[in-house]
């Protein structure tokens, strides 16, 4: 067992708090970090052997993160916003990549011919806190960071955070962070598109994501994964708290709350909503071009938004574990949920008062 003791992790967190106080940033990060219990971590490590540094819970909702989050939480909280920013906010595997491609394309003159990677065009704000420090970033990205930050260490400063900071306007920024972990003035300054997906399909997709991506390196089966899901022990959990935060902001004039299933049902209808919300003033013919461009078959064929082959090549993705852009359908959960799994998943849903009144579609 190579798991570092909770005592050591707590010492790191105390050191992080001390350093954050020295930074004298605009806002102090208001939430506490709580390392997961050593007994729980032992169980997690049996199925997630890469989490040797331990996991922690953040704030009153107990959002789960890797220990790297402590180094950058305050920077995310104080991320400098621009008036023309648009944030794509989701729980993981709820259509984030789909919406990134849609929003960026609509906000950039329906540019369907770019050869830039999606995460360069629409950067992932907190990707640094998910990355393994054993993996080197792309050389071109590292060169860009070093040119802007001479003498600084990307592992502590945040390479991907710098990509988001330096991205030219109008920025389209991806995040899986909930509202409570971002700057409280977010909606005073910028717009947010929140995309929700039903929890059963989200769980299935998240399972495959954890099997594919080496920074998660899940080695268990789906039944065991559902146990972690229902105990809110996966990164970014609790799902229902995240969803409830987004739903509570749905009537804010700077928030557009969309359902993944509605986008599948009638993409043109949802693109018209986005067109109004974003103020992009695209003609119907242009919206049809966007709709064609973001069909799952087309996105899956483009390396700019489906990095599976590149990820396997550089050792970030596992072979034979599917693709980053997978199926993009509603109802695939029926192929995974045995009566036993359905029983415990339903019990989890019923046990929570959060998000219980949010309408969910489980089949199209």
UniProtKB/TrEMBL annotation:
Domain of life: Eukaryota
Domain (Sulfotransferase): residue spans on this chain: 84-350
EC number in record: 2.8.2.4
A Pfam family matched in the record: Sulfotransfer_1
UniProt keyword list: Transferase
Keyword Iron in annotation: no
Molecular function terms, GO-annotated: estrone sulfotransferase activity
SUPFAM superfamilies: P-loop containing nucleoside triphosphate hydrolases
InterPro entries listed in its UniProt record: P-loop_NTPase (IPR027417), Sulfotransferase_dom (IPR000863)
Top EC class, one word: transferase
Protein family per UniProt: Belongs to the sulfotransferase 1 family.
Protein's UniProt name: Sulfotransferase (Sult)
Source species taxonomy: Eukaryota, Metazoa, Ecdysozoa, Arthropoda, Crustacea
């Amino acid at each position: 067992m190579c798991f570092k003791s909770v005592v050591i992790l707590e010492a790191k967190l105390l050191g992080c708090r001390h350093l954050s106080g020295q930074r004298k940033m605009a806002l102090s990060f208001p939430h506490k970090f709580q390392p997961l219990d050593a007994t729980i971590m032992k169980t997690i490590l049996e199925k997630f052997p890469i989490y040797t540094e331990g996991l922690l819970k953040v704030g009153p909702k107990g959002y789960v993160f890797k220990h790297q989050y402590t180094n950058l939480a305050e920077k995310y909280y104080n991320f400098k916003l621009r008036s023309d920013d648009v944030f794509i906010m989701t729980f993981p595997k709820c259509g984030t990549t789909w919406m990134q491609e849609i929003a960026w394309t609509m906000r950039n003159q329906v540019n369907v011919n770019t050869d830039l990677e999606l995460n360069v065009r629409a950067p992932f704000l907190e990707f640094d806190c998910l990355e393994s420090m054993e993996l080197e970033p792309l050389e071109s990205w590292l060169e860009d960071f070093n040119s802007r930050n001479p003498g600084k260490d990307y592992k502590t400063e945040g390479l991907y955070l710098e990509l988001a900071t330096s991205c030219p306007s109008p920025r389209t920024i991806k995040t899986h962070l909930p509202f409570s972990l971002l700057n409280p003035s977010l909606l005073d300054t910028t717009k947010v598109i929140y995309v929700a997906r039903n929890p059963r399909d989200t769980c299935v997709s998240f399972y495959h994501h954890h099997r594919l991506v080496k920074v998660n390196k899940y080695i268990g089966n789906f039944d065991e994964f559902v146990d972690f899901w229902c105990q809110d022990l996966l990164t970014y959990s609790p799902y229902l708290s995240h969803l409830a935060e987004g739903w509570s902001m749905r009537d804010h004039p700077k928030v557009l709350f969309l359902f993944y299933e509605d986008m599948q049902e009638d993409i043109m209808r949802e693109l018209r909503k986005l067109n109004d919300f974003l103020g992009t003033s695209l003609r119907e013919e242009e919206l049809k071009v966007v709709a064609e461009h973001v069909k799952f078959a087309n996105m899956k064929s483009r390396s700019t938004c489906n990095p599976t082959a590149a990820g396997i090549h550089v050792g970030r993705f596992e072979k034979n574990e599917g693709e980053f852009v997978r199926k993009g359908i509603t109802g695939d959960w029926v192929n995974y949920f045995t009566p036993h799994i359905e029983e415990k998943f339903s019990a989890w849903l019923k046990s929570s008062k959060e998000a219980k009144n949010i309408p969910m579609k489980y089949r199209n």
